[in-house]
Amino acid sequence: MISVSRLTRRFGGRTVVDNVTFEVGRGEIVVLLGPNGAGKTTTLRMLAGLLATTSGTIAIDGVQLTRATGGALRGRIGFLTESPALWDRLSVRENLRVYAGLHALASPDAAIDRVLELVELSDRADSRTAELSRGMRQKVALARALLHDPAILLFDEPTSSLDPEMTRRVRQLLTERRTAGCAILVSTHNLDEAERRADRGAVLHGRLRALDPPEALRGRLTTGRLIVRVTGEASAFLRVGRSFDAHASAEGSLLALKAGADQTPAVVRAFVEAGAGILEVRPEIPALEDVYFHLVGDDPAAAGAHR
After folding, report:
1. Which H/E stretch holds residue 117?
2. What are phi and psi of 163, to 5 degrees?
3. Tens digit of each residue's pLDDT (9 = 90 or more) over 160-182
4. Do the Cβ atoms of 1 and 180 come closer than 8 Å?
5. Residues linked to residue 281 through DSSP beta bridges, in sequence order
6. Which of 137, 156, 172, 300 could form an S-S bond across to 82 if both were Cys, CB 3.0 to 4.6 Å?
7. pLDDT digits (tens, 9 = 90+) for 44-87
8. What is the CATH number of domain 223-283?
9. For domain 2-219, which CATH number applies: 3.30.1490.20, 3.40.50.300, 1.10.3210.10, 1.10.10.10?
């Protein structure tokens, strides 16, 4: 449903999005992964028709996004920005009614009631948005994005400022919309978001660095070390770790050692025999920002261009 080819955006002499090509199919969630400044929001704004491309093409259901087609295509898109722009003096319902009018909804009040229930804001429908917490304002923005039942969802950091319960609900909504056949593109700096819900993760840092299913992406980014979490101080069992890896290290209750997945049973057995209370054994996954510098390590100019 979404097809992006050689997408590029420059601001003056600075290239923020560089020759990016990917597709998002019907009933698919693709997560754009990247730290701040990687070009995620710029990409979403171009896809939503809010920002002109410098070069490259965007097609929605085979129709190229242009100035002439933008109005009609935007009606098929629900865009959730990281910082929702709302009219503070209007109530929640009045904010949504404006957008219901823009989308020419046949039954605006019914649509508004539906989305307010979805985001658990029915009891605040008559509150002015200026009175709402940041998390509640994000819920209003989410309701606005879903109001016209769009076939394409573009979500920029959708769980920002939300409490854990609503974060879980947003993830459920994304899964439900995928099942209904929506094409969904979500930007986040959190690798966990990709692993939980995405069909594919797109690693973006100016250019597209990787595009893989979560398990393949995680496999590419792993350090090859195991993290063993024990009760008490891990340093007491450092000698056990160093029987597998001479450079094993311990900090607090965590011990890190180089070991393949096939060695995990032997590692667990050795620690248990040494008297360790094992709480967790897992592959070490680096912080996402560290991963990015690793992925762009062969292109130092790119590493500095998007800070």
Report:
1. helix 108-118
2. -75, 165
3. 778 888 888 888 899 999 999 99
4. no
5. 228
6. 156
7. 999 999 999 999 999 999 999 999 999 899 999 999 988 888 99
8. 3.30.70
9. 3.40.50.300
